[in-house]
Amino acid sequence: MTVTSTISLAVIICLRFFGFWPGVPYSTIYWLSFMLSILVTQYFQYLYVFDHLKVSELSNLVDCLIVTLYYSLTFLKLANLWIRRRVLHQILTDMDDDWRKCVNDDQHLHIMTIKANVSHFFSNGFLSFTMIAAILYICGDYIIRFIFVTEHYNDTVRQLPIKIQLPFETEQSPMFEFLVIAITLHVMLHVCMISILNGLIFTLVLHLSGQIDIICQEFRNISKNTLVHRSSIHSFGMLIERHNRILSFSENMEKLFSLFSLLQIFWNTAVVCCLGFVFIISIHNETGVVALVKTMFTYLAVAMEVFMICFSGEYLSSKGKSIARATYEMPWYDMPSNQSKILIFIMMRSQKRLAITAGKMMDMSCETFTSIMKASISYVSVLYAMY
């Protein structure tokens, strides 16, 4: 099957389902419904948190904070994405235009197809892994209760998939079964949305890197024999236009994901810290094996989420420098002066840094990822000392 978009089918379906895809009817209703469901869940989650805000219940408190903080992060992400949905629609429109221009050139189409295949593979892979981690996290407590039925596990108490405090009785059938199914489906939708948003960042960066590779390829294709002809002026004009589109695309990405990345840093630092604490205390628990597997997969999923965003910023920054290198490597010394001056302006504009920043305060890079993990480990040691 011929690839016609850098965005995978799973990402498109989810963006349509949550009302972010352009042209979807009743998109506001879809978005509001999901946001209201998150708000209701958050209310009961924070009721549980405040009710168990005690040092003596630190282990239980940290465990419930993991899901609670993630719900808060998703709510803020979706609110930010909805406010800037016109920017997202512009980005998606520009991507369609880029693909239409590539269809008539086999070299360009080959480059974009490779990027699209990589994007589809990692988007679907990350979505699958995150869903598995969520299922293990939800089912982990049930497995522990089933295997380790001791005096510490009151079998008469029915536990919901996530820790929330509802104002009515939840242990009687069929109310309990209904709540388990509803909460599980909601958690899976929530996890799916998280994966799609992170996959979207990686997808947009890969698309932009494909356009950069096309420009570099065109610079290499301009040989010494064609530089003296007027046709090269037209080629330079097309390259300048494509370069302007890349800069505009990068600016729109920065508008869309700047606050998004800042929220990601703070919330993921707290979540990784909580998961690390749960992971440590699980080692000394009699239910260690099941709890370790449950926590390890969740920890890896969260770490992969942070790493994907940081790596995307690092990769984009690295690819942005390749335009200036490709321009300089051209045989500019054999060109007429009026054409070599064009190259100078292209190189000057290529100095504009392409990056994903966190609130325009710091770049998302591998160094940022290292800092997040270091900070999380430091907080884990403090929590463990308190415990």
From TrEMBL:
What keywords tag this UniProt record?
Cell membrane, Membrane, Olfaction, Receptor, Sensory transduction, Transducer, Transmembrane, Transmembrane helix
Where located? Cell membrane
Q: Which GO terms describe its cellular component?
A: plasma membrane
MF terms per GO, please?
odorant binding; olfactory receptor activity
The topology of this chain with respect to the membrane is: Multi-pass membrane protein
| UniProt key word GTP-binding | no
One biological process term in Gene Ontology: signal transduction
| Family stated for the protein in its record | Belongs to the insect chemoreceptor superfamily. Heteromeric odorant receptor channel (TC 1.A.69) family.
Protein name as it appears in the record: Odorant receptor
What species does this protein belong to?
Temnothorax curvispinosus
